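User: These chains co-purify. Model them together.
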Amino acid sequence: MAEFLFEIGLEEVPARMIAGAEAELRRRVVAMLERERLVEAEPGAETAAESFATPRRLAVRVRGVRERQEDAAEELLGPSAKIAFKDGVATPAAVAFAKKAGVVVEALTVVTTAKGEYLQAKVVRAGKTAAEVIAAELPKELAGMYWAKTMTWRAGKPERFVRPVRWLLALLGDAVVPVSFAGKASGNITYGHRVLHGEAPVVIERPHAYETELEKAFVVADVEVRRERIRKALDRVCRGVEGARWREDAELVETVTQLTEWPTVLLGGFEPEYLTLPEEVLVTVMRDHQKYFAVEDAAGTLAPHFLTVLNTEVNAAGEAVIRHGNERVLRARFNDARFFWEFDQRVPLEERTKLLETVTFQKDLGSYAAKTERMRRAAAALARRVPGVDAPALDTAARLAKTDLTAELVKEFTELQGVVGGLYARAQGVSETACAAIYDQYRPVGMEDSVPRTAEGSLLAIADKADTIAGMFGLGMEPTGSKDPFALRRAANGIVTILAQGSLPLTLVEVAEAGAEGKTELIGRMLGFFRERVEFYLREAKGQAYDVVAAVLAAGFEDVRDAVARAEAVTAVRVASGSGGDDFAAVSAAFKRMKNILAQAREKGIEVPGRVDEALLLEPEETALAERAGDLAGQVDALRAAGEYEGALRAIAGLRPQVDAFFDAVMVMVPEPQVRGNRLALLARVLGDFSRIADFSEIVTAG
Amino acid sequence: MEASGTKKKALTFQELLFTLQRFWAERGCVLQQPYDVEVGAGTMSPDTFLRVLGPKPVRIAYAQPSRRPADGRYGENPNRLFRHTQLQVILKPPPERVQEIYLESLEAIGIDLREHDIKFEEDNWEWPVGGAWGVGWQVMLDGLEITQFTYFQQCGGMDLDPICGEITYGLERIAGFLQDVDSIYDIVWAVEPDTGREVTYGAMRLPEEEQFSAYSFDYADVEKLWEHLRLYEAECLQLLERGKAVLGPGPGGRGREADSSATLRNDNQDKKPDVLTVKRFPVLGAYELALKCSHLFNLLDARGAISVTERVGVMARIRTLVVGVAKLYAGQGAAVEAAAPRA
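Assistant: Joint model of the two components:
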């Protein structure tokens, strides 16, 4: 047993691709070693493997790798016995098979399979050395790696990879495993930091020395270590400013972790006069364009400082130089932003509404001016259903919402669309309600993002998204599979999230109607799409189990907030400790049984009467069920109407003794048609009365 | 910048250019003069756009004034120019150590990498009108993008083999960085050795920025620009047609097109055109006409004369020209190569 280490050296890999590639290489190497019987994972345990990555390398290290495969006995199946032997004499088919299997003809045996008698050769496949196997298999794994964008670099284009391969390192114990890929042959040599170590080779004697040797060459190979080093350095350097904190930004931490091999952190500053620009603009410039962390004071307001993560380590003089350079760049960027900000103010948003006629939204759906008119109608239609909405402010917001698309600042910083409009509107004296709505119109951008702060903002966001979805669906441009070029799923997710998290008394039916402006067929298609998105929301954002979601949506999805509440109640009752959860599971199983019985009856053409005839209830168990269910129905309805779903579900679970007794003692499908019909009617009533929160027959129960 | 101010004096704008040119000349690059037709970027010079095509190795470097009318700011913005200067280095095929050599070029212009922060951040370049794209990086020096580094993959819609390394230095940015000035116009272009008088970038170029901004935003006659565009386009198209007749269809277009092109030949319908006719066919002339169209498009765009709906259509027209020229050029190269006597 030995440790195996593999490293592929690359020219700088795009930061966004490194984490995925690191995981994939590790997965592929482990799977290859397991497939080739070079490692044997403990049953139920994973093979012990570590992975490393920097912009210039991906590496994986696996412990407990065999030096060679064990010999394996194999039984090869050959031609049918009839063809292989004629009158007891081997035909060429038998000879060829024996040759292929590497045995003499006499060693062939005959086995009986489902298809008849066939020749069989028993061979012992000699185990190959790990080096042989890895040399043969690893290049295939490398060639199979997924990259979002690839290139060719060698003449004749023999391979595509993310960036040119510069070196390979492959060690099994202290021996080099000869791996060739992309014109490179492996050795025991890697390279250190471009500047701090230079081009001198770094020899790795044994796999376990990998990260310590690289550390000496100014490379932190372990991503987690690098990330923690950056976080600690951000904390430490930030303490240089009294009372300051850096703005947490996990995504940016990730990016700079993947952009550096030897990270250090530097504090810089800018002239406080720039703080007169909106914070949103300053932060966008720093974060998105310069990859700087914003710094705030104890009160949480933006401070005239930034933190930048370097891929080097310098002395104080060097720090002064680098700080000066970064500050100079930031100043130029802020100047640009200030120029655009002031330039844009010369044409107020009101005047820009006309300019929208020349901005195309989508070629078949017309300009943004046309979209604006549709959004205004949709927003007004929605507003009529929501008491207390400032309808004039909402209309102003809808009218001005898209005007910032003509602003230079938005052309420069597209991620600030909406935000810039809201800020300009405020500067131009538009009502605060309308400003906030314009500002928030694109929210939520992702699952993590917050929803608009106000009802007006929520309605504007919904109207915008519903119009986009209706327009694209009207053109037959629904998302299919992984293709969603107009981000319609994200738009619908946004609507669902706003409805789920806000307090708007709107259903998805009303939203679809407002977007589709009464086109019935279109509304139907939109609702099908919305249902999928509610399902997605319940599962991904709310973490609800698959069967709970199916059960809840079967009882209705149009009221999103209600669907969420029902799902949460079902989950709460289901996982309740003690007999509550058991009763619920039992009742669910019984309901499924009821549904199946009713379905079978319907299949056989047996009619189910609309009501239960008490005179036909013969057995005490069916009378008990009818009575108990009748009592509970009223109670459950009252609880349901009050939104007390958990209470209602517990009440339903209380039906268990009667349900169990019923199925133990009563046969439904008896020959007497009247009794049978009445029993079916009873089951239908129970199901109908108790399936308004969720269709329990969808709940998956053990056993 | 006290820390580096104590060291040797920063290069002037022209010394920066000399130094980089000498650096690359010493590494085998032929120094070419700037191309004398308006281009938006060094890539559009035929020394890049056409020479990357075909199998012949190329090492070439040149400074290329690059015009982007929409970026003009009447000389008021200290960081934006209507016309800036790129130093373009083309290496086909790229040497193995191309990144390391590039870093050495930074040392050559006085950047001590040990006291700076340098990063290669993903930045893929693409010129849809030229059917051209590549993958690569923007090179960040202390937070400033100083170079676009591209492995050219496709040009004129054709896969390149061998591919080509393209290094594009932003000379104004680098000079501003080295000299530590906040405005491009304060860059010292040259120093008179006898008097010590400094000639600034502003002294050399400000009037140009002022006037060409005014021309492209306020004065350019939209109708005439359209007319020029149509004229250049028509002539370019005509050349492309004749080119197809002389050279046959470009790579990827055999069959029907070949038959129709044969009818355009007036004489010697049965014979292949002779090598001299092929060699002398002005593909390069057609390319200049296509570049004129591209520049006119940029002017019209800056003038605000192209609506969003028109934009896509006009770009497609220019793409037809540029990609057509590239295909013709590749075909011409192959034809001349095939006709050459074997050594």
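Strands of chain B lie at 30-31, 58-67, 83-92, 118-122, 125-127, 132-141, 144-155, 158-170, 188-191, 198-200.
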